[in-house]
Automatic annotation (TrEMBL):
Protein name: Ig-like domain-containing protein
Residue numbers spanned by region Disordered: 154-174, 442-465
UniProt domain Ig-like: residue ranges: 179-235, 243-329, 334-410
Compositionally biased residues, Pro residues: 456-465
SUPFAM superfamilies, sorted: Immunoglobulin (SSF48726)
Native source species: Gopherus evgoodei (Goodes thornscrub tortoise)
């Protein structure tokens, strides 16, 4: 079928050799090894050792017996007639009889050799020679490997699961390769504890990745006649497991309408930084401004909703880490300031009384108490006294001051005394509470007075209890 014009034509069956061939054939059969008779193993030498597609090869038995009568070549691992390529007889010129597996490209040569020309990859396979000789019959098989030219193919490094703690890269299967070598940044890699090659070298696994493993990976496949390096490289950046970031607000107590910033302190290898408040992700807006690297969040025109637990989340291809919350509290108040019990209060001589100032404020306010407009130097949230004289009646004032909002609110309660055996004066003032914009020093008996403003100017001291 593949017979080429001009190739060596075996002798015609009907030539003058016919009788000889028949005789040799019969003779040959006489030299079939008898049961138990050992056939000498025949070593077959390939020339060239690594034949390539399109080239020629010769398969020659090493040291063939001088007295061989015929030898047959088979395209298989056994001497099966269906796979017989040819049989030759050691005459001058050589006599070649083709078998069923002859393709037209095989010829016999001196010393029982087989020549094959115009090799294709299909010629790869087992070849067996059987030598018949009166003294030393032999049988040998060789594997012929026909190499493709790798330069006509292409090799590429697969993406593998890179980058990660463990990565592997798989080169695309080249049709025909004996060796696969790996290179990083052009230098060949030797396998080690951490660089694990699969048995065919086609998969490289990098364990316990370190910074030194970053680089451009290539593979090179080769056979004895050629080699080719992957035309792509796989860049493996060094990627670390991110440490947990931290969030630091520049102030933990913030003012309404004010501004504060939050900083996400994280490794530079985090390539995404996201923000959350109370576990919900934040979307940047006019009031929530991110720096270009997302690491600083600035909150403008603070409202009560901006208070909360802020977290940042950092990500890179191998890890995602979220910080502990950094809590920002809105400072406000004092609001709803009142004195308990509310006025007017009836004092009982000899019976101790405690006034408590209650305020809604963050942070907790400081308190000062005054009587009849005079500071008493008492600073707790409550004031306790034992009314023994008429001097204890009058207008009690609580000033609640928030140091962050710089806001002071003052309220008053009046106290008079009636329940004394000596019939002390009773409260003689209107009972309606009143709120004033500015601090007042009301007359005895004004119910409640509120005021806001700056720090108190301590009035002249006077005892209060
Ligand atoms: C292969 O053998 C043929 C015939 O013997 C010859 O013409 C050709 O040049 C040879 N090719 C090579 C590559 O050696
Ligand atoms: C190789 O063998 C396959 C199947 O046997 C056949 O399809 C193909 O055409 C052959 N190739 C050559 C170059 O002979
Ligand atoms: C050669 O023959 C052996 C045994 O039959 C077989 O295992 C092997 O695959 C064959 N090699 C080739 C290249 O066909
Ligand atoms: C596998 O790689 C090692 C180290 O680079 C090399 O020595 C060896 O020859 C390679 N083996 C194959 C089959 O490619
Ligand atoms: C990889 O790291 C683990 C844990 O750190 C260690 O147990 C293991 O021996 C390391 N393997 C190699 C090949 O260095
Ligand atoms: C915040 O701004 C709003 C509108 O400008 C204003 O009504 C409000 O009083 C301000 N609050 C404070 C605490 O300054
Ligand atoms: C926090 O940052 C904001 C905005 O930059 C600034 O206005 C404010 O004064 C800073 N607070 C402190 C305590 O530094
Ligand atoms: C910055 O934050 C925005 C909004 O959360 C997000 O869409 C973006 O991916 C982030 N960019 C970086 C580089 O972290
Ligand atoms: C406070 O005022 C009331 C009524 O004006 C008076 O009775 C009382 O003595 C005053 N107390 C002090 C300590 O000034
Ligand atoms: C607090 O307010 C008072 C009066 O309103 C002002 O004089 C003072 O400077 C303010 N202090 C601060 C720290 O803002
Ligand atoms: C309040 O304190 C100031 C300074 O500590 C002191 O001079 C004054 O006498 C005190 N007033 C009273 C009523 O105790």
């Amino acid at each position: 079928m593949r017979r080429r014009p001009g190739s060596w034509d075996p002798l015609a069956w009907n030539g003058p050799w016919k009788g000889l061939l028949l005789a040799a054939s019969v003779l040959g059969s006489c030299f079939q090894p008898a049961p138990g008779q050992t056939q000498t193993p025949v070593t077959i030498v390939l020339t060239p050792p690594s034949p390539v597609v399109g080239g020629n090869v010769s398969l020659a038995p090493q040291n063939p017996p001088q007295d061989f009568v015929l030898c047959s070549w088979y395209r298989s691992a056994t001497a099966a007639e269906t796979s017989r390529i040819l049989t030759c007889f050691p005459h001058t010129p050589l006599v070649q009889q083709n078998g069923p597996a002859h393709t037209g490209l095989e010829t016999a040569g001196p010393g029982c050799a087989l020549h094959i020309t115009g090799l294709t990859l299909n010629d790869t396979g087992n070849y067996t020679v059987q030598i018949q000789s009166p003294t030393s019959p032999g049988l040998g098989t060789v594997v012929l490997r026909v190499y493709g030219n790798e330069k006509s193919g292409s090799v590429s490094v697969g993406s593998g699961n890179v980058p990660g703690r463990e990565s592997s890269e798989e080169p695309r299967q080249p049709c025909d390769a004996d060796t696969v070598l790996w290179l990083r940044d052009g230098a060949s890699l030797a396998s080690s504890d951490r660089l694990v090659l699969s048995s065919d070298n086609r998969t490289l696994k990098v364990l316990n990745v370190t910074r030194g493993d970053a680089g451009a990976y290539q593979c090179e496949v080769g056979n004895p006649v050629s080699s080719i390096r992957s035309d792509n490289t796989l860049s493996v950046p060094c990627t670390e497991m991110l440490p947990r970031p931290t969030v630091t607000p520049n102030q933990t107590l913030v003012l309404e309408n004010g501004t504060f910033t939050l900083r996400c302190n994280s490794s530079p290898s985090a390539d995404t930084v996201l923000w959350l408040r109370d576990g919900a992700s934040l979307v940047p807006s006019d009031r929530l401004v991110l720096s270009p690297d997302n690491r600083t969040l600035t909150v403008l025109g603070v409202t009560r909703d901006d208070a909360g637990a802020y977290q940042c989340e950092v990500r890179n291809p191998v890890s995602t880490k979220r910080s502990e919350p950094g809590t920002v509290t809105l400072a406000y108040g004092p609001e709803s300031v009142r004195i308990d019990p509310p006025g007017p209060i009836t004092l009982t001589l000899g019976s101790p009384l405690t006034l408590t100032c209650v305020a809604d404020s963050i942070p907790a306010p400081s308190y000062r108490w005054g009587l009849n407009g005079t500071d008493t130097n008492q600073t707790g949230s409550s004031l306790t006294f034992n009314p023994m004289t008429l001097d204890h009646q009058g207008t009690y004032e609580c000033r609640a001051h928030n140091p962050i909002t710089n806001r002071t609110v003052s309220v008053c309660v009046t106290a008079g005394s009636i329940n004394a055996p000596s019939s002390l004066m009773v409260s003689r003032i209107p009972l309606t509470p009143a709120i004033a914009e500015t601090p007042t020093h009301p007359a005895l008996g004004v119910g409640v007075t509120g005021s806001t403003g700056g720090p108190q100017a301590p009035p002249a001291p006077k005892g209060a209890g």
